[in-house]
Here is the input.
Amino acid sequence: MNRNKSSEKEEQLTSMSKCRTGSYACAVLINGRGYMGDKKGLVKIAGRPMIEYVLDSVPDEVTDLFVYVENETQATAYEPICEKYFASLIRMEKSQYSNEYEKIREVLEKVPNSNVLILPCDMPCITLEFTYFLLEASKKFTAVLPRMLDNNVDFSLASYQTAPLIEAFKKYPEMHMPELIKKLKNVLYISTNALRFFDNKLGILYRVSSAADIPKVENILRNRL
Here is the structure.
């Protein structure tokens, strides 16, 4: 990938100081840690790169689609898929982050949209019905946060109103997301029981973290046909 083109795109996004009201973005995060490293999202699931299932779940209402990568290796690897899906490939400011909260903050501060849907690259069982709900709910709620099977919140599977979050980041610059979210008003937490409305077996929450997960995910997808 041409680094100059990537830098130009980042500068264009950063220069937009005001969010476009009523505009909706989706940011898919590439995480190079763990199974398969930088190419995690390219792991084949039923013959297709895992990230394609995530990108297929993005609602039509999204006007700006971004894929955030951490380094040039990822940028080169994911560029063809970004071109296929007309997604903008964005290089994160750092190649490593101490936690996912820093990534979320960077995305929300850079994306020039009023509402942002954030998705991880390693959850191929996410459905369009579910992501559409997340995006629609963000029109009313400051943050929409599904609870995972362990009852914790994964901030990389959520939707946000950017303006209130950016204001909170400025007011509490040293605060991590779990504490910062508690400072916000009108936050919607979605329990796992509520998530069964979208998927009774909660397959939408399944992450691929090892080779052993691949046949399980393929089975989930096969049973939906």
Summary: The CA atoms of residues 89 and 223 lie 32 Å apart.
